[in-house]
C-alpha cells in the first residue's frame, strides 16, 4: 500500500474510490484477468467506510429478493437501466460470492440480509483478504488533482507524487463532487447531487409527544404531487420517520430539494378504508351506541395514545354532531402536516444525482463518450431505497465494470 515505484508503471486498470463499488470492481477485474495490473486509489486513510457504518455496524449487504424485475423496482433512479445488469449479477450472486469465501449471510423478515456475525467487519475483512490474495494494489491518501486522457491512456495527477498511468480508468467515487468534476472533464454531463432517503422534520408537530409510536401501514403523499408511498411510519420528536417516510423522500428527492424541504405532507392513517367507509363506520357507531365514549370505543383500533391525541375533546357519541364525525373522518383520511426540513437517516447518507445514465453502456458500464472509462456505484445517477439495494447497486455495477474493463 501507499506510494511506490509502481506509480511510474503502466496499469491495466486504476479504480478511483475505495468504497464498496470500487473495491468490488477491482476484485472482479483481477478475477477476470489475474495477470492484469490493477490498483485502487483512495483519497482518505480508510477503505470501505460506508460498509463499516451500514446497518448500524452490521452491514446490510443486499436484499433477499431474488427476481431482477421486482428488485429493480426499488430504485427511484436507475430502475430501467439496472434490469439488464441484475440478470448478470443480482442478490443471489452476491450471496454466493460471499458464502463461497466463508461469509454466510442471513435474511431478516423484511428481506434485508446481513452477515451471520452481525458485524460489518466480517464483510470488510473478506474483501480485504480477497484483494490481498488476488494482488490488487491499494494506495491510500491519494489526492487526485487532475485526470487527462492522452491517446489511449489516462494520466492521473496526484498531489505531491508522481502520476499514475493506466489503460483503463474506473470512477467509483460515490457522490464526491471531485468525481463528478472528473467525469465532466472527460466529456460527461452530471445531474446535480441532492439528498435522498431522509426523514421529515415537522416543527411544533402536534404529535411530538407521541415520539416512538409506530404504525404498520399508512399512506403518505406530498401534497399537490403524484409522489406517494404506503408502508410503516414512525412518529418522532422532530416529525416522521420509518420506511414510508424514507421511501417517499427517495422518490420525491428532487422535488423536495426544489421546494427547500418545505412542503405539506398528507397522511392517510387508514389506507385500507375509503373516506366513505370511515364516515359510515363512525356514523354507525353513533347510531348504535350513542351513550358510548368515542375515545374508549377506538373503532379503528389505533394506538391508544394516538387515538386520544387525535380525538381530543370529543367524548360521548350522542354529543358529537355528524359534521364533527365527518371532519374526524376526513382528518383520518387526509391529515396534513407542514414539513420544514429533513434529517439524515442514522449514519447513512444517500444522494441522487451523478453521471447521466444515457451516457453509459449498462452492458459493460463503459462510457459511451470516452472509451476506456468505466463507472460503478453512486457516481452514477442511481440510488435505491433502504434495505440493501444501494449496496447491491455497488456490487452489480462494480462486478460488471471490473469484468468488462479487462476482458
Give your account of this protein's structure:
- The protein is an alpha+beta fold and 407 residues long.
- Helix content is 34%, strand content 26%.
- The protein folds into 2 domains: 5-195 and 347-405, FAD/NAD(P)-binding domain (3-Layer(bba) Sandwich), CATH 3.50.50; 198-344, no CATH class.
- The chain is built from 14 helices and 21 strands.
- The strands form 5 sheets. Strands 1, 2, 6, 7, 8, 9 and 21 form a 7-stranded mixed sheet that branches. A 7-stranded antiparallel sheet has the order 16-15-12-13-14-11-17.
Put the structure in a nutshell.
The chain has 407 residues and is an alpha+beta fold.
List keywords for this structure.
14 helices, alpha+beta, seven-stranded antiparallel beta sheet, elongated, disordered N terminus, seven-stranded mixed beta sheet, FAD/NAD(P)-binding domain, 407 residues
Helix content: 25-40%
Beta-strand percentage range: 25-35%
Under the CATH scheme, the architecture of the largest domain is 3-Layer(bba) Sandwich
The beta-strand count equals 21
CATH top level of the largest domain is: Alpha Beta
SSE layout:
Blueprint: E1 10-16, H1 20-32, E2 38-41, H2 49-57, E3 62-63, H3 68-72, H4 79-88, H5 91-99, E4 105-107, E5 112-115, H6 120-134, E6 137-139, E7 144-150, E8 153-158, E9 161-171, H7 177-185, E10 190-196, E11 198-201, E12 214-222, E13 228-235, E14 239-241, H8 243-251, H9 253-258, E15 262-268, H10 275-288, H11 294-297, H12 304-311, H13 322-333, E16 335-340, E17 342-344, E18 350-355, E19 360-361, E20 366-367, E21 373-375, H14 389-405
Parallel strand pairs: 1-2, 1-9, 2-6, 9-21
Antiparallel strand pairs: 3-5, 4-5, 7-8, 8-9, 10-18, 11-14, 11-17, 12-13, 12-15, 13-14, 15-16, 19-20
Helix pairs in contact: 1-6, 1-14, 2-6, 4-14, 10-13
Amino acid at each position: 500500500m501507499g506510494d511506490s515505484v509502481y506509480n511510474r508503471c503502466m496499469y491495466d486498470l486504476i479504480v478511483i474510490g475505495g468504497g464498496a463499488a470500487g473495491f468490488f470492481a477491482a476484485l472482479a477485474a483481477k478475477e477476470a484477468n489475474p495477470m492484469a495490473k490493477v490498483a485502487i486509489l483512495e483519497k482518505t486513510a480508510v477503505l470501505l467506510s460506508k460498509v463499516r457504518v451500514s446497518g448500524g455496524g452490521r452491514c446490510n449487504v443486499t436484499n433477499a429478493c431474488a427476481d431482477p424485475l421486482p428488485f429493480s423496482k426499488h430504485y427511484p433512479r436507475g430502475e430501467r437501466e439496472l434490469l439488464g445488469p441484475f440478470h448478470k449479477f443480482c442478490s443471489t450472486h452476491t450471496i454466493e460470492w460471499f458464502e463461497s469465501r466463508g461469509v454466510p449471510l442471513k435474511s431478516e423478515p423484511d428481506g434485508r440480509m446481513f452477515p451471520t456475525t452481525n458485524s460489518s467487519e466480517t464483510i470488510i475483512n473478506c474483501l480485504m483478504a480477497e484483494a490481498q490474495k488476488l494482488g490488487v494494489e491499494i494506495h491510500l491518501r491519494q489526492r487526485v488533482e487532475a485526470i487527462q486522457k492522452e491517446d489511449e491512456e489516462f494520466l492521473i495527477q496526484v498531489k505531491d507524487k508522481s502520476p499514475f498511468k493506466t489503460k483503463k480508468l474506473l470512477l467509483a467515487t460515490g457522490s464526491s463532487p471531485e468525481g463528478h468534476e472528473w467525469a465532466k472533464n472527460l466529456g460527461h454531463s452530471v445531474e446535480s447531487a441532492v439528498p435522498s432517503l431522509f426523514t421529515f422534520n415537522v416543527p411544533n408537530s402536534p404529535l411530538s409527544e407521541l415520539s416512538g409510536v409506530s404504525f404498520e401501514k399508512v399512506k403518505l403523499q406530498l401534497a399537490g404531487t403524484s409522489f406517494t408511498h404506503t408502508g410503516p411510519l414512525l412518529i418522532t420528536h422532530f416529525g416522521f420517520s420509518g420506511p414510508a417516510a424514507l421511501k417517499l423522500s427517495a422518490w420525491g428527492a428532487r422535488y423536495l430539494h426544489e421546494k427547500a424541504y418545505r412542503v405539506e405532507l398528507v397522511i392517510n392513517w387508514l389506507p385500507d378504508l375509503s373516506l366513505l367507509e370511515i364516515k359510515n363506520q363512525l356514523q354507525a357507531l353513533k347510531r348504535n351506541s350513542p351513550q358510548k365514549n368515542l375515545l374508549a370505543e377506538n373503532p379503528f383500533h389505533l394506538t391508544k395514545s394516538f387515538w386520544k391525541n387525535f380525538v381530543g375533546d370529543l367524548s360521548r357519541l350522542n354529543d358529537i354532531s355528524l359534521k364533527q364525525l365527518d371532519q374526524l373522518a376526513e382528518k383520518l383520511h387526509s391529515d396534513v402536516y407542514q414539513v420544514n426540513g429533513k434529517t439524515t437517516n442514522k449514519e447513512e447518507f444517500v444522494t441522487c444525482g451523478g453521471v447521466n445514465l444515457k451516457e453509459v453502456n449498462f452492458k459493460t458500464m463503459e462510457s459511451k463518450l470516452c472509451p476506456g472509462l468505466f463507472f460503478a456505484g453512486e457516481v452514477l445517477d442511481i440510488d435505491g431505497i433502504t434495505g440493501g439495494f444501494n449496496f447491491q447497486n455497488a456490487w452489480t455495477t462494480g462486478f460488471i465494470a471490473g469484468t468488462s474493463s479487462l476482458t
